[in-house]
Here is the input.
Amino acid sequence: MTALVTVPCWIDLNAGDTAAEQAFYSGVFGWNYPEQHSDAGGWRPAMVGDAMAGGMSPRPEHMPMSFWTVFFATSDIEAATARAVELGATVMMPPLPVVIDGVLMTTLAIIVDPTGAAFGLAQQAANPGMTHRGHGSAGWYELASHDVAAARTFYAELLGATVHPVPEVAPMDYATLRTADGDFAGTMPVFAGAPEGVPSAWSVYFNVDDTDAAIAAATAAGASVLMGPETMHTGRIAYLTDPEGAMFGLLQPASADWTFRP
Here is the structure.
């Protein structure tokens, strides 16, 4: 039986200066951004050749900073939204059809989980989701939560997932979420030393061919390194903020077994 909500199928960056952010990620990941119909409201897909890596949209005026949103796939977004609410979530944006030049691309909703982390739901139509693989593709997802136990319970129920502790990163309380597709995300508490007011949040790790080279390209273009580079059992990782403060990770996988493929 197919789960009502499954693993992430899309990521989107809300950016203040979309031209500058497009140039930044193009330099680090090799993305290009085909111009879209005016119905798209400034949104553009991030692509490598003909493959889709994600998207980028102008940031709403009321949002104080740029951020990545992780969208989970669903075949019934109305039922999925209702189920999330049953499990204690709140709805930030109810299901909204995205129609560009008369074509239904996807239907999206934005949800806030019971611990305060925002995420999206996506019922894809003409938009095929992320099809890019390799350097610059989404390879791992991570949730830092102020109540990680409650978060794990919520996502396990919503996605039909199981929670698996990862002793290799002890003493950190780190556990993966696992579906029939395998491990796709890590969960952990918000760092004790995080600045006051930092919310629970999802983040994206991008596959790279060489973590150190990607860090050099990113920092030369205005990014800041928050963590790493560090070699772990999963591969060589780092965590950065882009020039507008949006957080993202880099992952040079140790093996294909640790590279999630949506």
